[in-house]
Amino acid sequence: MRHWTRRERNVHGDDSGNLVAVLILIVVLALLITVTVEALVPTFGTASTSQFGENAVAQANSGLSDALFRLDQMGDNASSFCVGTGIPSSLLTKAGLTSSDCLSGSGPPLSNAPGLQYYVVRSISSGLKNFETSEVEIDSHAVVKGQARTVTALIYRVADGFAVFGKTSITANGSLTNAPVYSVGGFPLQGQLEGGTVYVGVGGGGTITCNGTNGGNIIEIGQNGSTNTNSKCTNYQSQTTNFSPNEPTVCSGSTSSSAFSPCIDTSSFARTDGSTGSYYCPLPGLPASIQNPGNVSSVSVNPGPNAVFNCSSNGAAVTIGSTTTPTQSSTCPSSTEPSVSPSVPGVSSGVPPGSYYFDSSALTIAELDPCLFVNGNVSIYDLAAQPSSASLALNGQYMNAAQGSDYNLNFYPGNPSNFSLYWNGTGAISGPTGGGYNSKNPWVFDGYLYAPGASLTISNGDEVFGSMVVNSLTVQGSPNFYLVYPQHPKQFLQNWTVSHYEITP
Q: Quick check: helix, strand or coil at residue 7?
């Protein structure tokens, strides 16, 4: 019988220990592998979910692109519409639609986006910012492998600016060339000259005729169907847009004012004592029955820059401004800003900010008065009951002079954006006879004139600061246009711009 030596026993004992250690290591590794696999399985699921969600967003964006394409096909007038099925009733109601209004078929709205379920386009007509022509909200919904995503985008569209727009015709019997373009800051307009293109527009089906010099930075833009009658408007460009400015009106219901359809809200006029006092109209030169019908000595509240003043004359003729001929050497009177407790204006040429409602059949502004100072943003609406027989006379040497101007050939134009004149008449707008004050100075209009039913003739030496929209414009000689961008309305459509974008969930 063999007996183990001490050395042999030690060697055998060492092998047993190694075997146990190996077994323990194997068990530990197995446990680690199990834990790792269990940890990785949710990660793989999360990665798949994320990928499917991203794919759903991509397909929802495809719906957004298709909606933009359809909007472009609508031209100037964007409206609400919907495409697809399974659209929540809340979205349809918000857009003023029903399921029967939606375009739908047997498959998804887009063949290359099988997960796209629907998209809804809601046209927004109220609360538009200045110069915005359209604003819409688009909700596009897609589902991929159970992962649902909704893309919501708020987009708007504005238009390039026309310095001058004639709804039916523009006739240039003089020079239309190199009108200087001024920047919007730094008034009076001295040292603010900038380069830039000047757009002169004519409405759809209208005519533009150039019988004199044309060129420089003047570009004539013709709406759909317009005609360059004698081909002498060398920078003429024909467009497919159909812009046609509407007459100014009184806002009704939820209607809000826009560049193409301006209106004045007459639902709440300013009063001399909050909501209990009488209406008043703080413009110089008006009769007491309009300016201060309540015969009050002061106004107890400041109506603020957005006030609307009732200047109704029940159709009677009205003159704004002084009717007293000043001596040529005198200076313009100082303006008066409304304060917390202002006296009823009327003894100075200061015009407080706000909107002024007139219904005069014969409105004259600043007759024989070169100075009509404007203190802030002033909009005058004259909405005659009979537009065909109404008259508008811009008899003042200056419509919107800056401080420092006087009657002695010194004129400093104010900010054109501070003075807007809206008129619904269909006749000819008249200017001062004899070429202005004492027949020595030309007529000057400084502001924004919106009279899409009226005709206007601008003659040699006359000056226009700002911009205008009329029915027909005739240019005689070489008047001076000092065009202030972007203070006039925007009327030539640009591409859609995204102002808000979000993804849910």
A: helix
Please report the pLDDT score of residue 50 as a whole number. Answer: 84
Higher per-residue pLDDT: 397 or 80: 80
Task: Pull the structure tokens for residue 206.
Answer: 């209208």
CB atoms < 10 A from the CB of 250, how many? 14
Rounded Cα–Cα distance for residues 468 and 431 (Å)? 15
CA atoms of 163 and 464, how far apart (whole Å): 10
Q: Is the peptide bond before 505 cis (omega within 30 degrees of 0)?
A: yes
Determine phi and psi for 468, rounding to 5 degrees: -155, 150
Give per-residue pLDDT as tens, 129-170: 644 667 899 999 999 999 999 999 999 876 656 778 899 999
Does 262 score more than 50 pLDDT? yes
pLDDT in tens, 360-380: 999 988 644 555 566 678 899
356: closest CA among 273, 449, 270, 274?
270
Is 418 in the same domain as 373?
A: yes
Beta-ladder partners of 199:
219
What's the total number of domains in the chain? 2
pLDDT, tens digit, for every residue of 307-349? Answer: 999 999 999 999 887 655 555 555 555 544 333 233 444 334 4
The amino acid occupying position 358 is F
Residue 17, domain member (yes or no): no
Q: What is the pLDDT of residue 434?
A: 44
Amino acid at 242: N
Identify each DSSP E strand in 94-180 by its residue range: 116-124, 132-144, 147-161, 164-172, 176-177
Using alpha carbons, list the distances in angstroms from residue 408 to 219, 328, 482.
Answer: 36, 5, 21
Other beta carbons within 10 Å of 211: 15
In this structure, the answer to whether residues 389 and 458 fall within a common structural domain is yes
Instruction: Specify the pLDDT at position 73.
Output: 78
Domain residue limits at 65: 53-159+494-504
Mean pLDDT of 12-33: 57
For residue 99, count other CB atoms closer than 10 A to its CB. Answer: 12
Q: Which two tokens stand for residue 460?
A: 């040699």
Round to whole Å and give the CA distance between 423 and 479.
Answer: 23
Q: What is the DSSP string of 425-475?
A: --SBEE--GGGSGGGTS--EEEEEEEEEEEEEEE-TT-EEEEEEEEEEEEE
Pair 284, 393 in one domain: yes
Separation of alpha carbons 382 and 370, rounded Å: 21
227, β-bridge pairs: 207
DSSP code, position 407: S
